[in-house]
Design brief:
With 80 residues, this protein is of the alpha+beta class. Helix content is 19%, strand content 30%. The protein has helices at residues 38-42, 70-79, and strands spanning 12-16, 31-35, 45-49, 55-59, 63-66. The longest helix has 10 residues, at 70-79.
Length: 80
């Protein structure tokens, strides 16, 4: 019998609704991929892969989590 594969957290998508103070790093109305970070979440922050392609912490209130249909989600994550 094979061991079950460890489950990884699914990629979470968010849309930026505000970028005041972060206009160089974030675009309003753009969809971003997040990186799980429990410590950041406890502090009201979210770890987002931004315009530079790196992940940084931002205030959680700048984003709204979104759910896309499976086909759209797969297409978006394949491109990212």
């Amino acid at each position: 019998m094979s061991k079950p594969k460890p489950r990884t957290a699914p990629a979470r998508l968010v849309v930026c609704v505000e970028n005041e103070g972060y206009s160089v790093s974030l675009e309003r109305r753009k969809i971003y991929l997040t990186v799980p970070d429990v410590t950041a979440s406890r502090r009201g922050q979210i770890r987002v892969i931004d315009e530079s392609g790196e992940d940084y912490l931002y205030p959680r209130q700048l984003f709204i989590p979104i759910k896309l249909p499976d086909a759209a989600r797969k297409a978006l994550l394949h491109v990212a």
